[in-house]
Design goal:
Layout: H1 10-20, E1 27-35, H2 55-71, E2 76-83, E3 89-97, E4 103-109, E5 118-122, E6 125-129, E7 141-145, E8 152-154, H3 165-176, H4 187-204
Parallel strand pairs: 1-4
Antiparallel strand pairs: 1-5, 2-3, 3-4, 5-6, 6-7, 7-8
Length: 211
């Protein structure tokens, strides 16, 4: 089971419950971003193509994961990148398009400090996952029912710690039950995510030696 810890943290579960219950109505668009300005003190693996460097594979994966959770696999993908000196993407912009007219805009960057937030916009309201949307340490949920200026904060249970414990508990439960596949993070989930990442790389022209 891959370490996609976001799928197990409380704010993600609360958000998906609201989406699946139809509280937002039909989801029409998403904007998700994750970025930070790097300098020589940052790990050099971020820029090494032989280590899968670049924003898409290191941090943009969280943008893609969240969008797939809410909107599913897109019908069309467009992607553009700013290439680093080493050949990996140091900034990536992605657009997902769906046959029902829904869109998602995803941005990842090593060039600038982004909000690292996510907006999920439906016909009856929207949810904003505040910084940093992929981890439980400081994330909060803002709910805008109906009018854009009508805002409330959504409470959710949150424990002390870094947040890895939620997925660790689930992995232990799977082991105790003798499972060879997680019912939460399935093999097909992992393959689907990798296939979409490969499609984005293909559109943006991001290549690794193993390709």
């Amino acid at each position: 089971m891959e370490a996609m810890w976001t799928k197990f943290v409380p704010h993600y579960l609360t958000t998906m419950k609201m989406v699946n219950e139809g509280r937002l109505g039909k989801i029409r668009s998403m904007q998700v971003n994750f970025g930070f300005a790097t300098d020589p003190s940052f790990p050099q693996r971020l820029f090494k193509p032989e280590l899968g460097g670049g924003t898409l594979m290191d941090i943009g994966i969280y943008n893609v994961f969240l969008t797939l959770s809410v909107l599913g696999v897109p019908d069309e993908i467009d992607a553009w990148m700013k290439e680093s000196d080493s050949g990996v993407d140091e900034q990536m912009a992605v657009v997902f398009r769906y046959k029902d007219g829904s869109f998602a805009q995803l941005l990842s960057s090593f060039l600038t400090n982004l909000g690292t937030e996510a907006d999920i916009n439906g016909e009856r309201g929207r949810i904003k996952l505040n910084s940093r949307f992929y981890e439980p340490v400081s994330t909060s949920i803002s709910w805008f029912p109906g009018r854009a200026d009508s805002k409330e904060n959504i409470p959710f249970d949150k424990e002390e710690g870094w947040g890895y414990q939620y997925q660790i508990r689930h992995a232990h439960e799977c082991l105790r039950k003798g499972l060879t596949e997680s019912p939460v993070m399935s093999l097909s989930d992992s393959l689907e995510l990798m296939q979409v990442l490969d499609a984005i790389r293909d559109k943006a022209g991001l290549r690794y030696a193993v390709d």
